[in-house]
Design a protein that fits this description.
- The complex is a heterodimer of chains A (about 325) and B (about 375).
- By secondary structure, chain A is mostly helical.
- Chain A is about 60% helix and about 0% strand.
- Chain A is elongated, with a radius of gyration of 24 Å.
- Chain B is of the alpha+beta class.
- In chain B, strand 1 and strand 2 (about 75-80) form a beta hairpin.
- In chain B, helix 1 (about 25-45) packs parallel to helix 12.
- Chain B is globular and about 65 Å long.
- The chains are: A mainly alpha (about 325), B alpha+beta (about 375).
- Chains A and B meet through helix 4, helix 5, helix 10, helix 12 and helix 14 of A and helix 3 and helix 5 of B.
Chain lengths: ~325, ~375
């Protein structure tokens, strides 16, 4: 067996140190100690008893109703040194990799969301061994919520390529939650927006049974714009991208009309080939198919869209 | 009900204080601020002596039961094996486990007369919340609700819109949690202007961020825990003068019991010689040190607490932008210093934790 890396070599606290501060003593816990503390805390955090919820993750203090994984991580960061946090991450990875569906979805959701906040990649990488084990997600209570948690963390911290590698394992779980499927498809669209509609069809066919007015479609176009920007939305609704595009385009027109107009104009006037596109514009005018173009042109900006919530600059 | 046979004297806990660290430990400062808040409240008649004594006896029972604490002789216990952080942890969980029983204990009278023009008593009341509130209000079939962290401002604007659709609102949704209280402040003065400004920006996240509206409001209201989430202002149809006329609304100035261990709650007035609020309300602690120093001791804004209000009383919800990190938060030493300053502001700079414990022991004969 290889020797442990230095960061796992732990000095034991003296009695006086333990006495002075139980929180300071957390700095001396090994990965197994952290795993036990995290699992117990995550279970207590799901308790129906408010007092039990308040005591979850003692000796740290947290609000029993309001504080979630993010607040726990902030408290940990303020309370223990960086080396101890690395061992905590190792313990967290152990908890996630070791999960079985018999443990229920509640506590592990909390820990997976915590994995979205920590610095190191190990807890997020542990999702793969977790999914490799046989699970029956159709019978798991709250499987859809587990799907949401995993999708949220992957989309927040994993690259589109890493998500693509994980998709074969993740697909059965994503099938339980259209919102999780949308999140994953939108994250992939940040690399290649053109595949968004087809990816939605593959991950969540149920979505295409819903009318484009449905709030899930609104969520889908919001996430597309958030991840891929208005430029990406233009590419995603390009008619050449397959039979699923019209539904997405209609949803964009309903829920984000301003961005839809921009998309419409950019499809008509592609400045990469002015002659070809002016010709196309002429044909559209002759066919009286331009509809809203004049009012749209009056308000359109080709450099910066004030009203969009394009988050690419934040994400990068 | 007070314990007739106390297991220890309150002053026994002094044995576990290891005071004199610079800056003082975080939990030492918090315990100091909370016990000072209780002492002020008892001395000013804001909290009934019997209630305060009952609470301290409960804390003593909880502290005495901790493993390193040993009974030494009747009425005393040896706390020398315990860390002050554990004392705070137990105190904090006690504040939570009391549930609704101890809340709204302030005995002070509220009055709508004599309000200055810049702080009118009939201004609508507002509570500042973060995006986590929507999961308590809206059904799971609103997809944005299903994720603890929200995405861009558009998510919040859609959630705000969903609150107007009755069929999407959960049965029993309230402003404030069950068994707890809602914190309200008048929508007037700086707070009112900033909320109006945010409303006029209609969710433009970048502009709101540049103007720091969410952070300025958060700082003024002492909302230390609010960072990195989106902020919203929930404006009620009710005003202070109209709520205090309604006995069933049970509006009060806040005490430590309402604050449940919140890291920047101060009992008002504090220190005791600060000017009381003309209308009998509490006052928040300004988080921005530059503003706090300039406006001391009346920094912050007026605040009151009430049991959760019906969801139908919401007049509007305004998106404020995303909260950044509060001043002094994040880095361990800076956080300790900031917490020590807060404890000084509540207890009085020259009043130590040991003096407060002795003071409470003597006032409550605990």
């Amino acid at each position: 067996m290889d020797p442990l890396p230095d960061r796992f070599k732990i000095a034991r606290p003296t009695r006086a140190e333990r006495r002075a501060s139980p929180i300071a003593a957390m700095a001396y816990w090994d990965a197994e100690g952290w795993a036990g503390w995290l699992m117990d805390g995550a279970r207590l955090s799901q308790s129906t008893d408010r007092g039990e919820r308040a005591s979850a993750f003692a000796p740290l203090t947290r609000h029993p109703d309001l504080d979630g994984p993010k607040e726990l991580f902030n408290e940990l960061k303020a309370s223990v040194p960086a080396e101890a946090l690395m061992r905590m991450e190792e313990g967290l990875a152990q908890c996630i990799a070791g999960w079985s569906s018999d443990d229920g979805a509640g506590p592990i959701r909390f820990l997976i969301e915590l994995a979205g906040d920590v610095e190191g990649p190990a807890p997020r990488a542990a999702v793969k061994p977790m999914l490799l084990k046989p699970h029956n997600f159709r019978t798991l209570k709250d499987a859809d919520k587990l799907a949401d948690s995993i999708a949220f963390v992957l989309c927040k911290r994993a690259s589109p390529r890493a998500i693509r590698d994980l998709l074969p394992l993740l697909a059965p779980l994503l099938a339980t939650s259209p919102s999780a499927a949308i999140l994953v498809a939108a994250r992939e669209a940040s690399d290649d927006p053109g595949i968004f509609a087809a990816q939605l069809r593959q991950l969540s066919p149920r979505l295409f049974d819903l009318p484009p007015e449905d709030r899930l479609w609104r969520f889908a176009v919001n996430k597309l714009i958030e991840r891929a920007g208005v430029e990406g939305a233009v590419k995603a609704v390009d008619p050449s991208r397959g039979p699923d595009v019209p539904r997405l385009k209609r949803a964009l027109e309903i829920h984000r009309p301003h961005e839809a107009r921009t998309a419409m104009i950019r499809q008509w006037i592609d400045l990469s080939d002015v002659r070809k596109d002016m010709d196309r514009l002429d044909k559209q005018m002759e066919a009286d198919a331009l509809g809203d173009i004049l009012p749209a042109l009056a308000t359109a900006s080709f450099t910066h869209d004030e009203r969009s919530t394009d988050q690419r600059r934040l994400l990068n | 009900m007070a314990d007739a046979t106390p297991t220890m004297q309150l002053a026994d806990i002094l044995a576990c204080f290891d005071l004199g660290g610079s800056p003082p430990k975080l939990r030492e400062s918090l315990l100091r601020a909370y016990l000072a808040g209780l002492l002020h409240a008892v001395k000013m008649g804001h909290v009934d002596n019997a209630v305060a004594k009952d609470f301290i006896e409960s804390a003593k029972r909880q502290w005495s039961a901790l493993p390193p604490v040993k009974p030494v002789h009747p009425g005393h216990a040896d706390f020398s094996g315990l860390g002050i952080e554990t004392l705070w942890g137990e105190f904090h969980s006690l504040l939570h486990s009391f549930d609704g029983r101890m809340y709204l204990q302030h005995c002070g009278m509220l009055d709508a007369r004599g309000a200055p023009p810049e702080d009118p008593a009939d201004a609508p009341l507002v509570t500042i919340l973060d995006d986590s509130v929507f999961k308590f209000w809206l059904r799971d079939d609103v997809p944005e609700v299903r994720f603890d962290e929200k995405g861009a401002a558009q998510d919040i604007l859609d959630l705000i819109r969903a609150c107007k659709e009755r069929e999407l609102v959960k049965d029993g949704a309230m402003v404030g949690r069950p068994n707890s209280v809602v914190w309200l402040t008048p929508k007037s003065g700086t707070i009112g202007k900033l909320i109006d400004r945010a409303e006029s920006m209609a969710g433009r996240e970048g502009d709101l961020e540049n103007m720091g509206i969410a952070d300025t409001i958060r700082n003024r209201l002492g909302l230390w825990q609010k960072s990195s989430r989106h902020g919203v202002a929930v404006i009620l149809k009710r005003s202070y003068s109209d709520l205090i006329r309604e006995a069933a609304a049970k509006v009060k100035a806040p005490t430590i019991f309402d604050a449940e261990g919140y890291e920047r709650f101060r009992h008002w007035p504090s220190p005791a010689d600060a000017p009381p609020d003309r209308l009998g309300r509490g006052r928040t602690y300004e988080l921005d040190p530059a503003i706090r120093v300039r406006e001391r001791p009346s920094d912050g804004a007026p605040e009151i607490v009430a049991p959760a209000r019906p969801f139908d009383e919401i007049a509007s919800i305004v998106y404020l932008g995303r909260f950044g990190t509060p001043p002094g938060k994040g880095e361990s030493v800076a956080e300790q210093e900031s917490c020590a300053e807060f404890a000084d502001a509540v207890a009085g700079a020259n009043v130590s934790l040991a003096e407060i414990v002795r003071g409470l022991g003597s006032v409550l004969k605990a």
